[in-house]
User: Fold this.
Amino acid sequence: MMMDDHFTVQTESLTKDYGDGTSVRALEDVSFSIAQAEFIAIEGPSGSGKSTLLNLIGTLDNPTSGRVVIDGVDTGTLKGDALADFRREKIGFVFQLFNLAPTLNALENVMLPLLPYQRKLGFKLEARARELLTRMGLEERLHHLPGQLSGGEQQRVAIARALVNSPRLILADEPTGNLDTKIGEEIVRLLRQLNQEQGLTVVLVTHDAAVASQADRTVYMKDGRLLEQGT
Assistant:
C-alpha cells in the first residue's frame, strides 16, 4: 500500500560533539532533506560521521546543536515516552550486526519490539510476524535460532523485525557489511523492493560505492561534513 507524499525528513545544521573537556566533533553543520519514498545512501569512509548522522535521524542520540524534523515534528521537543512512541511508530532499524536475541527464534525476534505493547495493537502480532517472515522467504525458518541461520537469513529476520511496527522510515546502518557480495546485493534489492512497493523512505549508510549506486541519491560525507549530494 502506497503512502501519502507528505512524509519528509530534514536535518538542519546538525552538529555532534563527543567527550568531556576535550571534545571530538563527529558531525558539523549537516543539513539536507529526504523526500517521502526516497531511497538515499549516505556514503563515506570509516569515521566520516555516517553512523552518527543515522543515529541522530533515528532519535537514538541527541545533537549538540541543530535539529531533526521528521514528518513535521521537531524530534528534539520529544522526551521520554513520547520520544519512544514516536520512534516506534515511525522508524524501523536494520543494523550491520543484525542485533538478534540469540536465545529467541526468528518469529520471537520479529515480535520482540512490540511485545510490551501487544494489547494496544490493532493487529495480531504473531500473525504479522509470520506474514513478514514469509515475505522474506523464511517461512521454513520461523522456529530457528539466529545461530542456526545464515548471515543473509539473519539480516532478513532483522528486516522483518524493522517492518513489524509498519514504519514510514527505514534506517539501515551498513546492512551488507557482514555479508558476502552476492547476499549483500540481495539485501539491497529487498530494501529497494520495499521502498518501491510500499512507499517506504529508506536511508542506507555504506562505505561501498556499489551499494550506494543502487539508491536514488547519494550523500557523501568526510570528516563529519557533507561534501556533496549526487543523483
About this structure: Residues 37-62+79-230 form a domain with the Rossmann fold fold (CATH 3.40.50.300). The chain has a mean pLDDT of 91. The first strand starts at residue 9 and ends at 18. The chain has seven helices and ten strands.
